[in-house]
Design brief:
The protein has 12 helices and 9 strands. The protein is of the alpha/beta class. The chain folds into 2 domains: about 5-165, Rossmann fold (3-Layer(aba) Sandwich), CATH 3.40.50; about 170-290, N-(1-d-carboxylethyl)-l-norvaline Dehydrogenase, domain 2 (Orthogonal Bundle), CATH 1.10.1040.10. The protein has a 6-stranded parallel sheet, with helices on both faces. A 3-stranded mixed sheet has the order 7-8-9. The protein binds nicotinamide-adenine-dinucleotide (NAD). Nicotinamide-adenine-dinucleotide (NAD) binds near residues 12, 51 and 65.
C-alpha cells in the first residue's frame, strides 16, 4: 500500500490531503500549525510531530508550501528530507516556486536515486476541495505515470508540461494571465458601477460577452455578485494577494532570464505590491477591487 507523507496543510494542502484520505491512501501529515494536523488526524490521517517524522516509512512525499525558500529548506541540506527517503521514493512538489528552485531540488533528488516531479496546481481552494485541480507537471513522463493515481485523487486535468521545472514555468505564465484578468475585471466593475450600473447586471453582461474570462465565471471581485467568491466573504479564504505577488515576481524573473517582454505582468506585479503596502497581503487576491473604489 502506498504510504504518503503530506507536508503543508494550508488553504490548499488540507483539502488536497483530505481527498487522498477519502480515496483510501494512507497518510501521515505535518504542518507547522498543529490545528491543521489535528483536523486531519480526526479524519483518519496519522499525525506527525515533524517533517522528518512524517516521511518515516513513506514511499511518496507531497509538499504544498508557500514559496521557494520553504521548499528548499524542507528538502535540501544535511537536515533536508531528501537524505531521509529510501531510494526509489517519489517526491511530488506541488507548491508554486521558482523554476530554478524546482530544478535544484530535482538535481539533488536524482543524486540520491529519488524520483521527483514539480507539480504546481491551478483551480484555487474550490478546486482543491472538489478534487478538480489542474496539475502542471515537470519531470520524466515515466515518473508521472507512477504518480498518476495520486494526482487523479486530487485533480481532474493532469498535464505533462515538459522536463524538470516545466510545470513551474507553465504555472507562472498561467498566473500572470489570471492576475491581469483580475485587475482588468475589477477596474471595469468599478467603472460600470460608478456610471450607474448594477454590479450583478454588469458582471453577467461581460461574462456572456467578449470580455468574459475566468474571474467573471468563477471569482467575481465585487462583493455580493457571487455568493461563494472570496469577495462576498470579506475577501477571506482563497488565494492570498501576497502569494499572487510572489507568482508575478517569479514570472518577471523568468522573463529576465530570457529577455522576454512582459509589460502587463510587470504592471500587475506593481499593482499587487501596492496592495501589500496597504496591509492587504493576507486577503484574497480579488481584494485588488478595493484599489478602484472610494472607501
Ligand atoms: P498557505 O499559506 O495557506 O499554506 C501553506 C502551509 O505551509 C501553511 O499551513 C504553513 O504553516 C505550512 N508550512 C510552511 N512551512 C512549513 C514547513 N517547513 N513544514 C510544514 N509546514 C509548513 O498557502 P496555500 O494557499 O495553501 O498555498 C500553498 C502553495 O500553493 C503556494 O505556493 C501557492 O502559491 C500555491 N497555490 C495556491 C492556490 C490558492 O488558491 N490558495 C492556488 C494554486 C496554487
Amino acid at each position: 500500500m502506498t504510504q504518503i507523507a503530506f507536508i503543508g496543510l494550508g488553504h490548499m494542502g488540507l483539502p488536497m490531503a483530505r481527498n487522498l484520505l477519502n480515496a483510501g491512501f494512507a497518510l501521515k501529515v505535518f504542518d507547522l500549525v498543529p490545528a491543521a494536523v489535528e483536523e486531519l488526524a480526526k479524519e483518519g490521517a496519522q499525525a506527525a510531530s515533524s517533517a522528518a517524522d512524517a516521511v518515516q516509512g513513506a514511499d511518496v512525499v507531497i509538499s504544498m508550501l508557500p514559496a521557494s525558500r520553504h521548499v528548499e529548506a524542507l528538502y535540501l541540506g544535511d537536515a533536508g528530507l531528501l537524505g531521509k527517503l529510501a531510494p526509489g521514493s517519489l517526491v511530488l512538489e506541488c507548491s508554486t516556486i521558482a523554476p530554478e528552485s524546482a530544478r535544484k531540488v530535482h538535481r539533488a533528488a536524482a543524486e540520491r536515486g529519488l524520483e521527483m516531479l514539480d507539480a504546481p496546481v491551478s483551480g484555487g481552494t474550490a478546486g482543491a476541495a472538489a478534487g478538480t485541480l489542474t496539475f502542471m507537471i515537470g519531470g520524466q513522463a515515466s515518473t508521472l505515470e507512477k504518480a498518476r493515481p495520486i494526482f487523479a485523487a486530487m485533480g481532474k486535468n493532469i498535464f505533462h508540461a515538459g522536463p524538470d521545472g516545466a510545470g513551474q514555468v507553465a504555472k507562472v505564465c498561467n498566473n500572470q494571465v489570471l492576475a491581469v484578468q483580475m485587475i482588468a475585471t475589477a477596474e471595469a466593475m468599478a467603472l460600470g458601477v460608478a456610471n450607474g450600473l448594477e454590479p450583478a447586471v454588469l458582471a453577467e453582461i461581460m461574462r456572456q460577452s467578449s470580455g468574459g474570462n475566468w474571474t467573471l465565471e468563477k471569482y467575481n471581485p465585487w462583493p455580493g455578485v457571487m455568493e461563494n467568491a472570496p469577495a462576498s466573504k470579506g475577501y477571506s479564504g482563497g488565494f492570498m494577494a501576497e502569494l499572487m505577488a510572489k507568482d508575478l515576481g517569479l514570472a518577471q524573473e523568468a522573463a529576465q532570464v530570457t529577455a522576454s517582454s512582459t509589460p502587463m505582468g510587470a504592471l500587475a506585479l506593481q499593482i499587487y505590491r501596492l496592495l501589500l503596502k496597504q496591509g492587504k497581503g493576507k486577503q484574497d487576491f480579488s481584494v485588488v477591487q478595493q484599489l478602484f473604489v472610494s472607501e
